[in-house]
Amino acid sequence: MAERCGETGSGVGPISDGVFKLLQVVELMKYRVIHVNASLKGGAATGSQRVHRSLLAKGIESVFVSSVDGPDETYRRIGGGPLGPAVTARYLIGKIRCEIVRRWQTPLAERILRDREDVFSHPTGLWRTWLPADLFADGLATVVNLHWLGGKLDYRSLLASIPARVPIVWTLRDMHPFTGGCHIGLNCQGYARGCVDCPIVKHEYRHLPGRNLALKRRLLAGRKVCAAGISKWITGEGEKSSVFPEESEFRCLPNGIDTDLFRPVPKAAAKECLGLSGQELVVCFGADRLCRKEKGFGLLLEALTRLASTGVQLRLLTFGDGEIPELPFGVTALGLVRGEPLQRIIYSAADVFAMPSIWEPFGNTCVEAMSCGVPVAGFRVGGVIDQVEEEVTGLLVEAGDVQGLGVAIGRLLENEPLRASMGRASRKRVETQFSMGLLAQRYQSTYEQLLGVQE
Question: Which of 93-107, 235-249, 282-296, 320-334 has the lowest mean pLDDT?
């Protein structure tokens, strides 16, 4: 810490109380943020890395830790090692039970996709996982920001590797941090009751979610925690859970986007670049995996089929992994797309961006499309509600209302002045609500408050 007395014999007198306090604050503002995310792929990885890059741009020391090697020196690999024999045996028994629950015992897994690993997962792993000890060894004030752990990292050993003095921000990118195992809760709110007698898991395994939730609660007990939801909806759901300590703070810290990377490209040029006719009306949809049923792709296809049957001429433009069935309208499927420059062209080529998710904690593609000046038509769910200002930047209908979704898309396709107006408003909304500068500012404020820098 700064010395209070000035140097003797140098003509410099004692430091005043005000100056000394200012020096203390300046010194305290030097701190390190350690981000933890299970992987470098997927929506959660995109969102968490944007936080990381936005902090680096502000001169804040930020380290990104995941289970794989990163692209530069600001990335570190998470440590790992085998568990002891007794713990391994207990884990294997629990893992087998968890797999039974996930594959055969859960109606939720049936509703989403039976072979998806991120429907239900244990908070414990076969391998111990820990953060590199040297990140805490120099005494620099530190905050750990947990993001998506994905059921792939062992919660016990991971949290044990974080010194008790270090505050934790847990960004809620899905529901797993505060449930007994579900990443996607849909209409279940069992986490508000401790996941006791789980309605999702049948028979003798119904105790498992409650046991998982209780473990998470014990691991966080006594820690300084801020739960940061990426939308108002998921923040509110997290507050209902008993996982977080009573004194925990809850904040809504929405994802941000680089508006210079995601900026409008002249529509005619964008369409030409993708081999599309400038006369075609294009509806765009994108997801890492088109088959993820919570993304609502099947509902969108039904809505567009109905719309096409009324005589509306349209073309569906998609990006993401998955096959598309035969449809009564034109389809351009681009497959998996990496890199913002190409994504910017894809969004800009769209006349309407479709957001048919039936469950969505935020929706990166929605805000990316809006940043490229494209109006949105979708369901009124989760984070989409925070992004789309209805009748200003897009049109929303009740979740699952296929006919209403088709009407909303048709209304935009048939009204070019409305599309243009909403497109301009979409771009402005992203610039003023979801920019990288705001993202960094919101997280910086949260970190510094936890560290006691802010008064």
Answer: 93-107
Q: How many residues does the chain have?
A: 455
Tokens of 397: 């209908």
Beta-strand ranges (E) seen in 290-402 are: 315-321, 330-333, 352-355, 376-379, 394-397
Whether residue 226 contacts residue 177, with contact meaning beta carbons closer than 8 Å, is answered with: no
Structural domain total, the chain: 2
- pTM of the complete model: 0.86
Mean pLDDT of the region 55-77: 96
- Token pair for residue 212? 């998982």
Model pLDDT, residue 99: 58
Report the SS3 class of residue 442. Answer: helix
The candidate with the shortest Cα–Cα distance to 314, out of 269, 347, 272, 283, is 283
Residue 189 near residue 100, CB atoms below 8 Å: no
232 shares its domain with 166: yes
How sure is the predictor about 256, in pLDDT bands with cuts at 50, 70 and 90? Answer: very high
The neighbour count for residue 148, using CB atoms within 10 Å, is 26
Q: How far apart are CA 224 and CA 338, in angstroms?
A: 37
Q: Which domain holds residue 289?
A: 267-433
Torsion of CA 368, 371, 375, 376, to 10 degrees: 30
Rounded Cα distance, 90 and 171, in Å:
29
Mean pLDDT of 151-157: 85
Q: How does strand 127-130 pair with strand 79-82?
A: antiparallel
Contacts of 413 (CB under 8 A, 6+ apart): 281, 283, 312, 314, 351, 352, 419
Rounded to whole angstroms, how far apart are CA atoms 111 and 202? Answer: 15
In a shared domain, residues 154 and 43 = yes
Q: Which residue has the tokens 């957001």?
A: 355
Alpha-carbon gap, residue 354 to 363, rounded angstroms: 11
Q: Which of 101, 226, 82 is nearest to 154 (CA)?
A: 82
Are 285 and 354 found together in one domain?
yes
Residues 210, 152 share a domain: yes
Let me know whether 213 and 308 are in one domain. Answer: no
Backbone angles phi, psi at 144, to 5 degrees: -100, 125
In a domain, 1, yes or no: no
DSSP for 377-417, please give it: EEE--TTHHHH--BTTTEEEE-TT-HHHHHHHHHHHHT-HH
Residues 331-370: pLDDT tens digits? Answer: 999 999 989 999 999 999 999 999 999 999 999 999 999 9
Report if residue 3 sits inside a domain: no
| Identity of the residue numbered 188 | C
Q: Cα 103 from chain centroid?
A: 25
Kindly state whether residues 378 and 335 are assigned to the same domain. Answer: yes
